[in-house]
Design brief:
heterodimer; A: 649 residues; alpha/beta; Pectate Lyase C-like; TIM Barrel; 2 domains; 11-stranded mixed β-sheet; 8-stranded parallel β-sheet; 17 helices; 27 strands; globular; B: 301 residues; alpha+beta; Glutamine Phosphoribosylpyrophosphate, subunit 1, domain 1; Alpha-Beta Plaits; 6-stranded antiparallel β-sheet; 5-stranded antiparallel β-sheet; 8 helices; 15 strands; 32% strand
């Protein structure tokens, strides 16, 4: 038995030792814990860890296999995302005990704080005392056993799983109901209590989802919608698209969900021009040899940076929204072009991991497909706060796409209309977020960059928070970004344009004297190397493309993304449709598209006489409209409107 | 966005000074707010005296501010008993027996008034708990109670005046530290402004302080005022309030912001996280509890 004294060494050093002892199969005794955060985070060996006192936030978080015993209390987020193993807490647990567990057994001998078992998927959370309000909030599976009273709104918005309450059920959450309790479930509970030596004589009430809110009653009709890229003239109202929207609503009786992004004219990178006459840019094919495009992202705090052959990444898109074949094609294309791919929501597949040299793993509010093993094999970790197409809202994955396979990876019931939570269980402010970031770093030994994905809403505040919370870089997503599914009004009107977003971000950093200290990857409507070069000249460190990559990879904008009936096999989980997708061919197509972006960036930099693309600066740009001049502070020079863009190779 | 802490000693038994206890607790949760640190301390004063602390800055700026303050004190017939510059602040103890609200509004308009009270003294500045202590000698304070705050500046600047605690502008001796966000801020503020109350920041914590102080002025007990705040304030909040004789907490109905309390025969201590409470008792397993959502409680010294 190894002993670790937290009165003497830091939690970070302790966690390294804990993992070493874990590898050696040695049990660990932790003295003087004094309620410090992140004790045991990232441990994946089946050893016993005894905490002789109280632990702070995320005790035993992001683990698989160990058995923890805590003599006294624990803070928020006990056993966060724990896959296997167990935790026994002899005192009380703070809020969100057992959050997002996926197989672990968690026992709290005292009381539990609010939202216990939030977004849990599998395993058992047992509380001998009372639970606080909203136990089982948004849970997807597994069981919660409460021997005391339930707290208010037990089972609020739960999708799957069961809550068993021996004491008083104080009030039920929405969509929850008390149902019959089969004998075999009682037997299984008693077996669990016996195993953890919890004496109990009494009866339970079983609470589960009432099944009324898991699916929309009607799905969007299969009409041949007007393609997203068809703008309906100047009018924002009573145009063709508004008409179409009303027709759809007249059939389904609710807001309309669709894929893609805003389809109305907005101030964008096209309203910015280079001062330089670029008409002969790229006449010389040797520009790629003369201009450095290689860019490192995310190394500012000592983690291993992403090493990109050019300042370009693939935007996060989920396996779920997209077919596995498409995700694999994206991964292959990212490898061929020497850039990074991003998992998006919904987890990492082995095929995707194998194909991508550099893969960023995204963590969303529902923790769908999130786990310590994939964290440890990622090249970057990203906390998703929101996206440009729907800032402040959770994702939507309609039932047709929630196949058996997708449900398994995400840990959710099959065939539901999945509405991901709009916020993280453990990020209710910048102060909580900093503890979350630290948890990720502890779990991966400070070796992998941790970034934040921000949808452009309150960019000024959000960027300052990102800076202060110590993120390694930011992915900033403007209103022109697309999505697999979101409400139409949200897509069109909630976010702020991409160029407004980058400007606010730069201003925010200047306001806190941190110009240049936080790398920003800009996305949302970046379609080619000219846009990319403009974004970099404006002040972005790199750009990311999503929609462009998908179009290069075969998308014809059939507007069936949300329904999952994508005719070319991209935004679908239907095997018949996916068969139509030729992964190697589409990977090559995407790769060639990325290479066109490379060439354009190089040609533009070269035409300016620069040897590095990052030498492009704001002095090279003018605004073609008064509005964009106002937004960006660039000089209003409408005379540049006639300047020709760079011709493609 | 921050961490909060408060302590009240029930008797004379203590192993740390009150100031040191607050420093340790705030140091324990400094990760929640590295930008600035503040303390609301309750000192022993004579009954007819008022303590005023101003933020004056340094050099010529400070000299001018002090001159303006003195002239305004004179205008209101407040006799200066003692004065002391410390850090970026200037502290006066004055004898004054007029209307405190009018007096404090007048003083607030002549310089940046940080706190006013028969007993209250707010010390706040940029930096961590130990850095602020190095300048302001917080550890030597040994009164019965105090509250403190560490701040992560998100929506306003990193300036001493934007740091917490906030006093209830216009009301002596009421201070607040707050973690969270009041979403009906403007509605509540306009309601109070219509009744003649002034606000000197756009910070929602000032609103909580003024809201509570107004209830106290109308004769409510601190406990009743806190009960009202849970009904009237929207948003996420965990806050601590202190007056000359009491401390108390209130927590919103969604319990979105953390709070842990520890009580024994000698003290009541409350903080955002247990790690702060353990800073008072290193190596011990404490019998703490997390106050339930929508609750409030007060303790009298």
């Amino acid at each position: 038995m190894a002993q670790i004294d937290l009165g003497v060494i830091s939690v970070t050093e302790a966690n390294k030792l804990i993992r070493q002892h874990g590898e050696a199969g040695e049990s660990i005794d932790i003295v003087n814990p004094d309620a410090r955060h992140h004790i045991g985070v990232g441990l994946t060996h089946p050893v016993t860890v005894r905490v002789r006192g109280s632990a702070g936030y995320f005790c035993a978080g992001l683990t698989d296999g160990p058995n923890f015993v805590v003599d006294n209390n624990v803070g928020w987020g006990l056993a966060d995302n724990m896959l296997g193993g167990s935790v026994v807490v002899h005192g009380n647990a703070g809020a969100i005990a057992g959050v997002a567990i996926r197989g672990a057994e968690v026992v709290v001998h005292g009381n539990m704080g609010s939202r216990a078992g939030q977004v849990m998927k599998e395993g058992t959370l047992c509380c001998r005392g009372n639970a606080n309000f909203m136990a089982g909030y948004m849970m997807y599976g597994g069981r919660i056993i409460i021997l005391g009273d339930s707290g208010d709104k037990v089972g609020e918005d739960l999708t799957g799983g069961s809550v068993y309450v021996a004491g008083k059920v104080q009030s039920l959450g929405s969509d929850a109901e008390v149902t019959d309790l089969p004998t075999e479930e009682v037997d299984s509970i008693m077996e669990f209590l016996d195993r953890y030596e919890i004496p109990f004589k009494g009866t339970f009430q079983k609470i589960q989802n009432s099944g009324k809110g898991l699916r929309y009653s009607k799905i969007e009709p299969r009409v041949r919608n007007i393609p997203f890229y068809t703008f309906s003239g100047e009018s924002d109202y009573w145009n063709q698209k508004v008409q179409e929207d009303i027709h759809v609503k007249a059939q389904i009786g609710r807001y309309r969900i669709r894929g893609y992004g805003a389809a109305r004219p907005l101030p964008h990178l096209g309203d910015i021009a280079f001062r330089k006459d670029l008409s002969s840019a790229g006449a010389d094919a040797g520009v790629l040899d003369r201009v450095n495009l290689a860019t490192e992202i995310g190394g500012k705090n000592g983690a291993e940076a992403l090493k990109l052959s050019m300042p370009l990444l693939i935007a996060p898109m989920s396996y779920g929204a997209l077919s596995k074949s498409t995700k694999v094609a994206l991964a292959t294309a990212s490898r061929l072009s020497g850039i990074a791919e991003n998992t998006g929501e919904g987890g990492m597949s082995d095929e995707q991991r194998a194909e991508a040299d550099q893969l960023v793993y995204q963590c969303l509010s529902g923790r769908l497909g999130w786990n310590i093993h994939d964290m440890q094999r990622a090249n970057g970790l990203e906390i998703y706060i929101s996206q440009g197409a729907k800032p402040g809202l959770g994702g939507q994955l309609m039932a047709k796409k929630v196949t058996k396979e997708i449900a398994r990876i995400r840990g959710i019931p099959e065939g539901i209309d999945l509405r991901s939570p709009s916020r993280h269980p453990d990020v209710l402010g910048a102060d909580d977020l900093v503890i979350k970031v630290e948890e990720f770093r502890e779990a991966t030994g400070y070796t992998i960059p941790v970034s934040v994905k921000l949808g452009a809403g309150r960019v000024r505040d959000d960027i300052k928070i990102a800076m202060k919370d110590g993120f390694d870089y930011v992915q900033l997503d403007g209103l022109q970004g697309s999505t697999g599914a979101a409400g139409n009004e949200v897509l069109e009107y909630v976010g702020i344009p991409t160029i407004s977003a980058i400007q606010e971000a730069l201003d925010a950093l200047a306001e806190i004297d941190c110009t240049g200290e936080l790398q920003i990857i800009l996305m949302g409507g970046v379609k080619d190397g000219v846009d990319a070069a403009k974004a970099i000249a404006l002040g972005a460190d790199a750009v990311a493309v999503g929609t462009g990559a998908i179009i290069a990879g075969g998308c014809i904008a059939c507007m069936q993304c949300h329904v999952g009936s994508c005719v070319v096999g991209i935004a679908t989980q239907d095997p018949e449709h996916e068969k139509r997708y030729n992964t190697p061919v589409e990977a090559r197509n995407m790769h060639r598209y990325f290479e066109s972006i490379r060439w354009q960036m190089a040609a533009i930099a070269d035409a300016h006489g620069y040897t590095d693309v990052h030498q492009l600066g704001r002095g090279d740009l003018v605004a073609l409209t008064r509005e964009v001049a106002e937004i960006t502070g660039l000089p209003y020079e409408p005379g540049y409107r006639n300047t020709q863009p760079v011709a493609a190779e | 966005m921050c961490g909060i802490a408060g302590i009240l000693f029930k008797g004379d038994h203590r192993n740390l000074t009150t100031g040191q206890a607050l420093i340790n607790m705030l140091d324990g949760c400094q990760h929640r707010g590295p930008d600035s640190t503040g303390f609301a301390l309750y000192r022993e004063n004579n009954d007819d005296e008022l303590r005023l602390r101003f933020l004056v800055g340094h050099g010529a700026e400070a000299e001018q501010a002090v001159k303006n303050i003195k002239s305004k004190l004179n205008e209101y017939g407040a006799a200066v008993i003692s004065e002391e510059p410390i850090g970026a602040t200037y502290c006066f103890v004055v004898r004054y027996d007029g209307d405190v609200q009018k007096f404090s509004y007048a003083m607030e308009n002549v310089a940046k008034l940080v706190s006013i009270g028969e007993s209250l003294d707010i010390i706040k500045d940029i930096g961590g708990a130990h850095e602020v202590d190095d300048i302001y000698d917080v550890h030597s304070f040994n009164g019965t109670h105090g509250i403190g705050h560490v701040r992560l500046a998100t929506e306003s600047d990193v300036k001493p005046e934007a740091a917490h605690p906030f006093w209830a502008t216009g009301f002596a001796d009421v201070a607040i530290v707050h973690n969270g966000q009041i979403t009906n801020y403007w509605k509540m503020r306009r309601r109070l402004e219509k009744r003649g109350f002034e606000f000197h920041t756009d910070n929602d914590s000032e609103l909580v302080a003024v809201y509570l102080a107004e209830k106290l002025k109308q004769g409510a007990s601190l406990s009743e005022a806190l009960k009202g705040s849970i009904d009237d304030l929207d948003g996420t909040f965990s806050f601590l309030v202190s007056t000359k004789d009491e401390i108390g907490y209130a927590k919103d109905r969604l319990a979105a912001k953390p709070m842990v309390k520890f009580e024994d025969k000698d003290i009541i201590a409350i903080a955002s996280e247990e790690v702060s409470l353990n800073k008072l008792f290193p190596g011990m397993a404490l019998n703490t509890m997390e106050p339930p959502p929508g609750t409030y409680e007060t303790w009298h010294r």
